[in-house]
Specification:
Chain B: This is Cytochrome c oxidase subunit I+III. The complex is a heterodimer of chains A (178) and B (831). With 178 residues, chain A is an alpha+beta fold. Helices cover 25% and strands 32% of the residues of chain A. Chain B contains 24 helices and four strands. In chain B, helix 3 crosses helix 7, helix 4 packs antiparallel against helix 5 and helix 6 packs across helix 20. Classes of the chains: A alpha+beta (178), B mainly alpha (831).
Chain lengths: 178, 831
């Protein structure tokens, strides 16, 4: 069989690459144990958000010194809570999930941007600056009224946040009841 | 029916299987879809005239964006490139036609009629409104209930079926029908780019076919893959983008091939670094399958995986850099002639550089957080995809003289280019300037309004510029000067060595590159010559491996080639009717379940769709049988370069390519099963069924693999009885398999309570996966049995004594179906 030398090289390179790829995927899965969905971003049953501590009552909660977690549920066609009230100059971790279809969660004008997939909890951590307001939009088609789907974030001074935080401590209370 | 009517007869265009005719049909149809997609684009631009304008309703806007994307990507870009591929790949490699001319016509008609189905979907209660990415679970009927949504996905599935046939055809042609002396590395670069494209298509479109089938099962049968809470939404993303990223190169590579061809022809220079460009093209093709996750950087995928995919994504720009530099050096070292085709190709390079560089930003995870969901992305991919298509417009000017036999008007062509180029940059560069505009909505910061209005005006200019092209071509075709064989001074490829337009059979003598340049050998083409003719030429000219032994194995080797068949059109029409019926069948039939099979009630509320479905199905079977019986002869090339498949006969090679794509289809189904099971927790699932029926079925199928081999053995021994006996045995074993399967399903549904959407043991999605995956396999068995039945009837009438190869092709398929079962059995019955 007459084979051009370039063709041999081509074949060798192609085969080599394929072997390399299959090898790297196998090594990644078996060796370091890389899984496709991050273990620190747990899943949730989107049909039973009512039974989930975080998402039954979407809210902002203090979890440490100047550290907060915001549990947000995206749905057709809005976000809950709305507005999301955050304290200024603090570290906030958003945990966002969807109760129906895939949505987006983008804080307009920032790079806080994630897809919100039903069944997955998207986590992103931001530093809030001084008091201001942001819009939140959905970046993925989610149905007829996708265009109008929006939310808002209000960053308020710390003391103002604590005054209004009565709601969130109620949330704690009901969480404890369960 | 092998006589081809003249070109002025409408009938010719329905029966033609000639690659040049089909190429023209593709080109014209693709231009029609360009106008359709362009109209939708203008609707979008008018909506953006002011923030939140209500020119279209919200849902209409979503539908316009969705179908604009689908039409441009599937029904315009690829088919436009493949119009040229149809016309010029056989000419460039010295073949008489594509390997399977009827299959080629079938691909075209599937494409054209699927486009009509997409159009119809608008009138079935509104078409798909999910964006062209069709993200789950918005794509399931619960959220997009209109029949038109199902219709649009069926149209896509039909398009993919045609595309798969086309892919197999091109792969077989390029590997089987290259003229003597044309090694793979000697192929013209346009053909090279098409080869790389069809290799990507073979695997990528198979994944799309699988994902479309799963989605259609969700939409029509009511399975619950993509609404599954166990990773169903993420599963769609993976499967879709595994197809979706190679698709970018699939639509770009034909344009790149045109660019490479035109840069050589109009710089009077051989491509600089030719072999490295080819290597780069191969590398890109392979790497394109390893970057899909960069479309999913905003999902919850692990950062390690994302980082790996960031590296591969940015890495893929390296071979592209090589290609771009090679193009630039080719110009620097050449003497450029600024003709219309060159201007378009050169413009395409400039636009692609902008598109490529802006894409590298998106490949970086952190920057993607910033850019995702903005007009940066929109501008980027239009510069890449439409920028690439710019070269295709260069291609149509370049090849118009060859295809039509007339010269176009050079001045009008240049005017078109200037207006096109200005309009293009006005609409898409303004998107970069207003990049903070969110995409997928029509609301934006009023500060960007002047920019968007500028872009809308640019879009109108861009759209109108095409009317100059249409006018130019129409006027030239009617009253333009005749084109010489080679209107360009410096061309290298074989299509310019024949008349404009080329004769039906392409060549006056057998093209050969054995001496290092193109020559036409006369004796080999004369069929009345005795066998020594071609053999002597081979002995004198070239070494080994040109398969002159093949001549004896073709009993009809001295027949004339056929060029006409109505069955490709008829089969496509039947398929279109079947798919149209399917789009509404689930909403017009109500099935009430009961405790037993016989208690099941079926009420038909609207007979239209079920009737279409039934008619279409009967039509498919009837036309397929007529196809099989038709005496259609596509002569294999007796002397050809076939590396690396020298020993493999033509149809067998095609069969292997088909099976390779089917491997990916099943691979996607199996991956989906594994993915969802991993998401649900692998060990929380027990096998739904007893393993005994599955085990018996495994033995039944494996036995049938032996009987089909024995059928072939007896066919080779010219034993009609033996062939009939073992084909019958194979069919009986297949029917036994199906009977056990049906018993098992019946048992599961009525005794155990496991249905498509209910599972008394656990996750309902497990039941869905079990029924749909084994159902797809069962469908393969049913199709296999239909083919076997066809073979049996023909064997009864004495066929396959002289030429047992059809039995062998069927055997390959049947073995494949058996092997798939060997994988499905442990997956569903043991673990």
């Amino acid at each position: 069989m007459h084979v051009h030398s370039y063709e041999k090289i081509w074949l060798a390179l192609g085969l080599g690459l394929i072997l390399l790829l299959i090898g790297s995927v196998t090594y990644g899965a078996v060796g370091p144990g890389v899984s496709m969905v991050a273990a620190d971003q747990p899943t949730v049953d989107p049909t039973a958000l009512d039974e989930d501590d975080r998402f039954a009552e979407p809210r902002v909660e203090q979890v440490g010194e100047n550290e907060y977690e915001a549990y947000v549920v995206a749905f057709q066609f809005g976000f809950e809570p709305d507005p999301i009230v955050l304290p200024a100059n603090s570290t906030v971790t958003f945990m966002v999930t969807s109760r129906d279809v895939t949505h987006g969660f983008e804080v307009v004008g920032t790079n806080a941007n994630t897809m919100v997939i039903p069944g997955e909890v998207s986590t992103l951590t931001v530093e809030t600056g001084g008091p201001t307001e942001y819009g939140v939009i959905c970046n993925e088609y989610c149905g007829a009224a996708h265009h109008g789907m929006e939310g808002s974030i209000e960053v308020v001074p710390q003391e103002e946040f604590e005054e209004s935080a009565g709601g969130s401590s109620d949330g704690d209370g009901s969480g404890g009841d369960q | 029916m092998s006589e081809l009517p003249p070109k002025t007869s409408l009938r010719r265009w329905f029966v033609t299987t000639n690659h040049k005719d089909v190429g023209i049909l593709y080109t014209i149809t693709a231009l029609f879809f360009l106008i359709m997609g362009g109209m939708l684009a203008l609707l979008i631009r008018f909506q953006l005239w002011e923030p939140g304008a209500q020119f279209l309703s919200e849902i209409a806007y979503n539908e316009a964006v969705t179908t604009h994307g689908l039409v441009m990507v599937f029904w315009f870009l690829s088919p436009f490139g493949f119009g040229f591929a149809n016309y010029f790949v056989p000419l460039q490699i010295g073949a008489d036609d594509l390997a399977f001319p009827r299959l080629n016509a079938l691909s075209y008609w599937m494409y054209a009629l699927s486009g009509i189905l997409l159009g119809i979907s608008y009138f079935q209660g509104g078409t798909l409104s999910t964006g062209w990415t069709m993200y789950a679970p918005l794509n399931v009927p619960m959220y997009t209930p209109s029949l038109g949504s199902t219709g649009a996905i069926l149209a896509l599935a039909m398009f993919v079926i045609g595309i798969t046939a086309s892919t197999i055809n091109f792969l077989t042609t390029i590997h089987h029908s290259r003229a003597e002396g044309m090694g793979l590395m000697d192929m013209p670069l346009f053909t090279w780019s098409i080869l790389a494209t069809v290799y990507m298509m073979l695997f990528a479109f198979a994944a799309l076919l699988a994902v479309a089938l799963i989605l259609l099962s969700d939409r029509i049968l009511g399975s619950i893959y993509f609404s599954a809470t166990e990773g169903g939404a993420l599963l769609w993303g993976h499967l879709f983008w595994f197809f979706g990223h190679p698709e970018v190169y699939i639509v770009f590579f034909p344009a790149l091939g045109v660019m490479l061809e035109l840069f050589q022809s109009f710089s009077g220079n051989r491509l600089v670094g030719r072999k490295w460009v080819i290597i780069a093209i191969c590398l890109i093709s392979i790497q394109s399958f390893l970057v899909w996750t960069h479309h999913m950087f905003l999902t919850t995928i692990n950062l390690e995986v994302k980082t790996l995919m960031m590296a591969t994504s940015i890495g893929i720009s390296l071979p592209f850099d090589l290609v771009v530099f090679s193009l630039i050096y080719t110009l620097i070292k050449g003497r450029i002639k600024f003709t219309t085709p060159f201007l378009f190709a050169f413009g395409a390079l400039l636009l692609f550089i902008v598109g490529g560089i802006t894409g590298v930003f998106l490949g970086a995870i952190v920057l993607d957080y910033e850019f995702r969901g903005t007009y940066w992305v929109v501008a980027h991919f239009h510069y890449v995809m439409f920028g690439g298509a710019t070269a295709l417009f260069g291609g149509i000017y370049y090849w118009f003289p060859k295809m039509s036999g007339k010269m176009y008007d050079e001045f009008l062509g240049k005017v078109h280019f200037v207006i096109f180029f200005i309009g293009f940059n006005a609409v898409y560069f303004s998107m970069f300037l207003a990049w903070e505009t969110p995409r997928r909505v029509f609301e934006y910061d009023p500060a960007f309004q002047p920019m968007h209005q500028f872009g809308t005006i640019g879009a109108v200019v861009l759209g109108l510029s095409f009317f100059i092209m249409f006018y130019n071509f129409a006027k030239s075709y009617v009253s333009g000067p005749d084109a010489p064989d080679n209107p360009w001074e410096y061309t290298r490829t074989a299509e310019w060595a024949v008349s404009s337009p080329p004769p039906l059979e392409n060549w006056g003598g057998r093209p050969s590159y054995a001496s290092g340049k193109l020559e036409f050998v006369s004796e080999a083409l004369t069929p009345s010559d005795d066998h020594d003719g071609p053999a002597a030429a081979t002995d004198g000219g070239h070494g080994e491996g040109h398969g002159d032994d093949h001549i004896e194995s073709y009993p009809y080797w001295d027949k004339h080639a056929s060029h006409a068949s109505i069955w490709p059109f008829a089969l496509s029409l039947a398929t279109g009717i079947f798919f149209f019926g399917l789009s509404g069948v689930s909403s017009s039939i109500d099935i009430t379940t009961a405790d037993t099979l016989f208690g099941t009630g079926i009420t038909v509320s609207n007979p239209v769709y079920p009737v279409f479905t039934a008619l279409g199905l009967l039509g498919i079977i009837w036309t397929a049988v007529k196809w099989g019986l038709e005496d259609f002869y596509a002569p294999p090339m007796e002397i050809a370069e076939r590396w690396p498949f020298e020993g493999v006969e033509k149809v067998k090679l095609g069969m292997w390519f088909f099976l390779a794509s089917d491997v990916i289809v099943f691979g996607a189904f199996i991956s989906a099963a594994v993915f969802i099971r991993v998401a649900a927790g692998w060990y929380t699932w027990e096998p739904l069924t007893d393993s005994l029926p599955g085990l018996i079925n495994t033995f039944v199928l494996l036995t049938s693999s032996f009987t089909v081999i024995l059928a072939l053995v007896y066919a080779r021994r010219k034993s009609r009885k033996g062939l009939i006996a073992y084909l019958s045995a194979t069919i009986l074993l297949g029917l036994t398999f199906l009977s056990i399967k049906m018993w098992e399903w019946h048992h599961e549904i009525y005794d155990v309570g496991v249905t498509l959407t209910q599972n008394s043991h656990g996750d309902p999605v497990q039941a869905t996966i079990y029924y749909v995956t084994t159902g797809l396999h069962g469908l393969h068995v049913v199709i296999g049995l239909l083919i076997a039945g066809f073979l049996l009837v023909r064997a009864w009438n004495g066929a396959y004594q002289e030429d047992p190869r059809p039995v062998e092709y069927f055997g390959l398929y049947w073995h494949f179906v058996d092997i798939v079962w060997v994988i499905l059995f442990p997956l569903f019955y043991l673990f």
